[in-house]
Amino acid sequence: MISASVPNNTGNPIGVFDSGVGGLTVVHALMERLPCEKIIYFGDTARVPYGVKSTETIIGYARQIAGFLLARDVKMLIVACNTMSAVAYEEIRRLSAVPVLDVIEAGADMALVATKTKRVGVIGTPATINSEAYTRAIHSRDKEISVFSQACPLFVPLVEEGWLDHPATRLIVREYLAPILAQRIDTLVLGCTHYPLLKPLLRETAGPDIMLVDSALAVAEMASRLLQEKGMETPGRVNPEHRFFVTDAPYRFQKTGESFLGHSLAPLEIVRW
Fold it and tell me: pTM of the entire structure?
């Protein structure tokens, strides 16, 4: 989904925000798909996880962060946090004069293409699952698809801790996926941008016959198409400047982020509200 008004700001950065380290999966996908674009990333590391917080609290955080990025003249906002997409997307779109993309619509599009049996599983935070945002988005495209959802509240803390291949994480992955795999799904939507960091464990547990839908890849493709359609692409640039804002700078954020991106992060800039 996007807002209607698009200013002439081709050289401006893309703004991406998330509750913590998970949105770096979107940053990675954007860097691969749009290597000439500058990116400003905001990770609300002091207040993660969002998925167990109230709707009112999440909307308040979303307003605050969107305003921060819009004040830095971004040409597009990408809501990398599925929880914020589920409960605060309309509020963010109302505040923004630039296009707003969200991972839920992108993930629903990809799930529609991926499923052959029309049996789709969705895993996410409690807030995302309780909102039924993925179910609505998928059914708006095809009402015949059966959607089976499972909240996985421990995944975000495990990723933020950097426990990507810990024995405890393996056990929890098996416990969470068991009920949804029993529904004979053929497609599993990773309904949180933290979850692709667990993709090796999720793939191992789900098995080779189940397609994993990574909404980070989907939203990067959507962003590319939109920039082309609106003539907002940045002309070729060598090593575009990226900035990374966080509300706290735990060592594990830098370590996990650099491990995933494959290179060092720019110096983290701390935001104190």
Answer: 0.86
